[in-house]
Amino acid sequence: MGVEAIMHTEFPEGYTVFFGVDGKVIMTPQSLEHSSTIRSMQIDTLALGRHAKVTSDVYIDFPADENSAPDLAILREDAEKQGKRYGFEDVLLIAEVVSVSSARKDYDDCTAKYGRYGIPVYLVVDPYAAEVVVHTQPTGTGYIAAHTHQYGTGKLPIDLADGRTFTLDLDELPRPEPETGAR
Question: What angle do CA 148, 106, 109 make, to 5 degrees?
Fold first, then answer.
């Protein structure tokens, strides 16, 4: 898609649109639950320190052009950009928030991908099921361990590979609000 075409395109309401340098147009639906969940997790990362290396929706380089912009990533404190981006080797934890259209990708595709590249901890945060699945012990095809934790069950400490602990407050994760009639 050329620049001229992009400038005259109306993208659907409720989508975030990213334009990759390789010419790809990536459209992701955003919801209040999705945004609020990421914000809640970002607040929890403040316990790691104000200047902890935490990203949201920022590209991380993976091999074979499998780059990702995870909903949340916690990086090693000594991580350094390789060019304009951080590399997957610096990632300690990735969290993806499930949306209605991304469930299969977050539960299946990303689990396989992040495990294959050795991401130590992968969280699937699902506001619709009110649960967080914590994947650990990466393998070439996914993860050996997966533990499910329900929303509303307190604070969940998650050990990071660098010795720090990220504590996710399961009581504070937002749940979808029921839809109401038209106004």
Answer: 115
In contact, 135 and 142? CB cutoff 8 Å = yes
pTM, two decimals, is 0.82
Chain centroid to Cα 43, Å, comes to 14
CA–chain centroid gap for 119, Å, is 12
Beta bridge partners of 76: none
How far is residue 170's CA from residue 183's CA, in Å, rounded to a whole number? 32
- Number of Cβ atoms within 10 Å of the Cβ of 30: 14
The string of DSSP letters for 88-126 reads: GGGEEEEEEE--TTTHHIIIIIHHHHHHHTT-SEEEEEE
C-alpha to C-alpha distances, 47 to 41, 54, 66, 73, nearest whole angstrom:
11, 12, 31, 15
pLDDT in tens, 132-148: 999 999 999 999 999 99
